[in-house]
Amino acid sequence: MDRLVIADKAYSSRLLVGTGKYRDFDETRTAVDASGAEIITVAIRRTNLGQNPEEPSLLDVLPPSQYTLLPNTAGCYTVEDAVRTLRLARELLDGHTLVKLEVLGDPKTLYPNIVETLKAAEILIKEGFQVMVYTSDDPIAARQLEEIGCVAIMPLASLIGSGMGILNPWNLQIIIDNAKVPVIVDAGVGTASDAAIAMELGCDGVLMNTAIAAAQNPVLMASAMKKAVEAGREAYLAGRMPKKLYSASPSSPVEGVIGNMSGK
Amino acid sequence: MIQLIVNGQSQLVPSPDSGTDSGTTNDARLNIRQLLEHMGLQGKRIAVERNGEIVPRSQFDQPMLASGDKLEIVVAVGGG
């Protein structure tokens, strides 16, 4: 069976989804389930002081017993903040070590700071974390992150939350060709065809949040993404036909056409 | 009272009750469990960092908090 293996654990779904920007927890849960995703990202934030104690929490709605939670470092701009956030996440999730590292470099573009990302990844890996790392589509950065022991390389397709799709398939191709760990496109997917293209390129998975949460109908889009990732994966495995600009080869027999051979 | 910085905000928390135990001195320290109860967070799925170091749940009963301590109390929320 074709499964996604990350840090020695196998997953049936190659779609990873975020849990942000939904209207409420009910919609979050329904969309996550429609997506079929097994790995779902969560953020770690200060608890609201003075909040209603009866208020449900995300982990009640998406229990770690049913999903592989992937705590992230969204919003972290320094090595220290990212490392502290994931140490807290590990404590919060009872020693869970699979994490998504992102160290951002700029609040306007949310572009990753690769130098700081490398430093943070090194510290986390030494401390026993299994680091899935958000990065740019720079093949050298991807290679260095793999060399220091990241368990998945997650290059952007375009900027976080932009929905601009896959802007540099050629760089992604180089990263995929070189990597021995899973390559998961993280960020930039806008609609189902983007996800399919990522998978057709040979990505091992796709991680998205806004493309689903910001759709007019998030639950329906979650279902569309599930199918797109599956379709893209199957197309990749099937191996596409070569592209030919001008070499006519009809699918139907050329012999036995009635009437005149008008094409001649 | 003990003055703590919790999630970036100053919090005045009553010192643990020293009346019932004659051996307890005035500098009795608060533990994390008492702080969480004071804040209405008991039973919540949270993680705690004190002065930059994780406090494992197994240490929540240890009287460790003193005035000036900086605490972060976090939860999981929706995110990408």
From TrEMBL, chain A:
UniProt name for this protein: Thiazole synthase
GO cellular component entries: cytoplasm
UniProt keyword list: Cytoplasm, Schiff base, Thiamine biosynthesis, Transferase
Single GO MF descriptor: thiazole synthase activity
Cell compartment(s), UniProt: Cytoplasm
Purpose of the protein: Catalyzes the rearrangement of 1-deoxy-D-xylulose 5-phosphate (DXP) to produce the thiazole phosphate moiety of thiamine. Sulfur is provided by the thiocarboxylate moiety of the carrier protein ThiS. In vitro, sulfur can be provided by H(2)S.
Principal place of residence: cytoplasm
Any one biological process term the GO annotation gives: thiamine diphosphate biosynthetic process
Assembly description: Homotetramer. Forms heterodimers with either ThiH or ThiS.
Active site per database record: K100
Binding site for 1-deoxy-D-xylulose 5-phosphate: G161, A187, G188, N209, T210
First-level EC class: transferase
SUPFAM superfamilies reported for this sequence: ThiG-like (SSF110399)
Family the entry assigns: Belongs to the ThiG family.
Domain Thiazole synthase ThiG stretches: 6-253
Biological or metabolic pathway of the protein: Cofactor biosynthesis; thiamine diphosphate biosynthesis
Cytoplasm as UniProt keyword: yes
Record field: catalytic activity: [ThiS sulfur-carrier protein]-C-terminal-Gly-aminoethanethioate + 2-iminoacetate + 1-deoxy-D-xylulose 5-phosphate = [ThiS sulfur-carrier protein]-C-terminal Gly-Gly + 2-[(2R,5Z)-2-carboxy-4-methylthiazol-5(2H)-ylidene]ethyl phosphate + 2 H2O + H(+)
Coiled-coil positions: none
InterPro entries recorded: Aldolase_TIM, Thiazole_synthase_ThiG, ThiG
EC number of the protein: 2.8.1.10
Automatic annotation (TrEMBL), chain B:
CDD domains linked: Ubl_ThiS
Region (Disordered): 1-27
Name recorded for this polypeptide: Sulfur carrier protein ThiS
Superkingdom, taxonomy of origin: Bacteria
Pfam families per the UniProt record, alphabetical: ThiS (PF02597)
Organism of derivation: Nitrosospira multiformis
